[in-house]
User: Fold this.
Amino acid sequence: MKRLVTSEQVQELFKVQLENWQLARENYLALGRIKTKRFQYDDFEIHLQFNPARLVSSAAKTDNKSLKERKCFLCPANLPEEQRGLPFGDDYQVLVNPFPIFPEHFTIPLLKHLPQSLSTRFEDMLDMATALDKYVIFYNGPRCGASAPDHAHFQAGNKGFLPIEKEWKSIDKELLWERTGLKLYTLKNYLRSVLIIESEHKTDAAELFKSVYEMLEVKAGEEEPMFNVLTWREEDKWIVCLFLREKHRPACYSIEGDGNLLLSPGAVDMGGVLIIPLEKDFEKITKEDVSTVFREVRLNDMDKLSMRLKREL
Ligand SMILES: [Zn+2]
Assistant:
């Protein structure tokens, strides 16, 4: 049995790092003072967080040339002097994220420098949700929000922060497939294209994820289907949200002039907290802009995929 850290141990790491690491301390203090607002839709909310510390991540250049020219910030050799890690099993370590979105925000990189991909690591993610039961674990695909697509990593943030944690239960949903202790849903009218796995057993969740994964299209030039994933433990079950994507960044990210909005959605945004690094964008963004962003980046033909899952699983 692998020795895995607990929620209490990472909370202790967090406390000690904030005492000893000025950058982290200042950024968490600043997070407590930032502006937020909410847009109400029919059956759900989108929260907006003005977070200037996330500019580095949202504006990150993730093309191969830029990646080769920078020192990988997740490799153990390049971590800031003050940063400490807690081993997670044999292959990962838990680090305090010094550019937070959540009140407690961790990055969980692989110790080795290997590309971001999920297919062989999904069970690790489920193990993280079990061990770190006070947190939601999330994954950004290499072209779906990960700012280090060349170094495999997960992240963890406090439970109770993302609207989808509650909304998935109340929102109109369609059951696509089930057997004892295992269900697959899609959420309807939720602005995002999302599948939900609800599973009593880890092996079942992993098996269903694999079956779904194999039915997803891999776009030309990509290593894996485009998605963001969230998972957490709830009432002795694993809940997995798989957000299917069409695009990395919305059109407003790159257009010039007044229409520009620097938004680069990842798992947190898909979960209902839109991160806005520039204050001018936070002030001017409308509910319609938010709808447009999600419509652009989500998988277009969710109905087609749902039909296929119902037929072939
Ligand atoms: Zn690395």
Remarks:
- The chain has eleven helices and 13 strands.
- The pocket of zinc ion is lined by residues 72, 74-75, 113, 151 (CB under 6 Å).
